[in-house]
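User: Hi! I'm working on a homework problem where we have to compare a predicted structure to a textbook description. Could you give me the structure for the chain below?
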Amino acid sequence: MTESKETARQRLRRRAEHALERRRLTEAETLLERLLDLVEDGSEESVFAHRHLAELRLERHPWRAALHLRHVIRAMPDDDVPHAMMGLCQALLGNYRAAVGSYRRALDVAPGTPWYLHNLGHLLDVALDDAGRALPALRAAHEMEPDHDEITASLAHCLARAGELDEALELAQRAEEQAPDNADHARLVKWIERGAPDEIDTGRGPREGLPEEGPKTRAVRETFEREMRAAGFSAQQVERAKDLWRDFRNRREVRVGKPEVFAAAVEYAIALIHSRRGATQAKIARRYGIAATSLSSRYGEIRDTLALRPGDPRYAS
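Assistant: Happy to help. Predicted C-alpha cells:
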C-alpha cells in the first residue's frame, strides 16, 4: 500500500471515529463507506468499518447490516457481539430460526450472558412456539438477572405457555412490581389469571361493549386495508386483519398516535399468522413510513393482548 493511501486510510478512520463520538451518524456512515474502498477485506480497518456500519444500519436496513456482519464474523469468529447482532438482524427480518442459531453461537462464545439467553428463549417461546425448549434458557437468564423485569416477564410468559400457571403468576406479579409503569406486565398478569388461554372466544359479529370507532382508530383500519390490498393480500386476509384489530380494541383501551404504526403492526401480525414469505418488520415499516422499532413495539402489544400464536386459527381462516 502506498504512503498516500496509508495516510488517507488513517485520516478517514480518525474522522469516522470523531463523527461517531459526536453522533453525526450520516457523516460517519459516509466516511466508513469510503474507508472500505481503501482497505483490504479482513483487515483491522475493514472489520472496524463493517462493524460500525452494521450498528448504524441494523434497525433501518437489517439485511444490509447482516451483510456487514458476515465480514466481521468471518474475521472474528470468537467475538460474541457480532453473532448476537446477527441474531437481532435475523429476528427483524423474520428469519427466526436463523436468529436462534446466531444467539446460540453467541452463547458458545460467551455462555454466561443473560441477555443472549433471554433473547434466545424469547424467540423460541414467542416466535417459534416452543415453550419447552425456551424454558431452560429463560430460567438461566432469570437466575443471573432476577431483578430485571423484562427477563422476569418473559420467563412468566413461557411458564404460562408450559402450563405452570402458579409459578408464572407469581413471576408476572413480581415483574409488575419491578416495573409498575409497564402496561405490558399488567396485561401479562391478567392473561395468566384467565388461565393463559391459547384462544379467546371472539366471535365474528358486532360485540357488546366494543368501543366506538373514532377518527384515529378508523384511520388505522382504513390504512391497513388500503396497504394490505396494495401489497397483494387476499380479501379474506384483509377481513381477518379487521377481525384482529377489532378484537384488540375490545381487549384493551387503545391510544393511537400515528395510525400507520398500529396499521403496520396489524399487517405484520396477519403476515406471520399466514406465513407470508418475505414479510419482515423492516420491509413493512418502510412501506408504512415508520421505524421498525415502532412496529415491533406495537406488534408486541397486539401479540400479548390477543395471545397470538403461529397459524392462529382465529385469524388464519
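For your comparison, note the following. Residues 112-197 form a domain with the Serine Threonine Protein Phosphatase 5, Tetratricopeptide repeat fold (CATH 1.25.40.10). The first helix runs from residue 3 to 21. Good luck with the assignment!
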